[in-house]
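Board notes (copied after class):
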Amino acid sequence: MKLPVVAYGDPVLRKKAKPITKDYPEVEELIGNMYDTMYGASGIGLAAPQIGLPVRMFVVDATPFGDDEELSEEERNFLGTFKKTFINAEILDETGDEWCFSEGCLSIPGITEDVFRNPDITIKYQDENFEEHTDHFTGIAARIIQHEYDHIEGVLFTDKLSPLKRRLIKSKLNNITKGKVDVEYRMRFPGKKGR
């Protein structure tokens, strides 16, 4: 089921999310709903706070990058099958020289900005069966994970912009908070019912 995406300005996006256990209610259904919501909004990642739940869970599906001719064949092959659920994630290490890439966010529609992030991460997490993993990711995969991980830490990509950039987009952010934005998917705006 597609759920409304929580818009910029909602306090849930600023909360540090709490861990969950395998007896969390209807976790399988929740994961399915998160994927449905992400696909319905043409996203490549979605964190639980973005559907109003302050829990440490996010889903990613980078398969659209599998057709990106600007990437190496190796990265295209990896991303073309990269779909994963992360529960109770903890980034253990971020390394390498920061690199810039244009990012957007389903909770902040209509705004994309260049964000600097480390190219390599090591992350510990549980999968949808609550089995624990520690994996290393690099490049675009690492960036997608870092973006979604930020959501469960109460951080948005706009927080990583320079003060000047933040001032330049302030009116757009205010409009999103007020629901004055045109989107192709359901959203829930602060102080309003979802549309």
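Comment from the instructor: The longest strand covers residues 83-95. The chain has four helices and nine strands.
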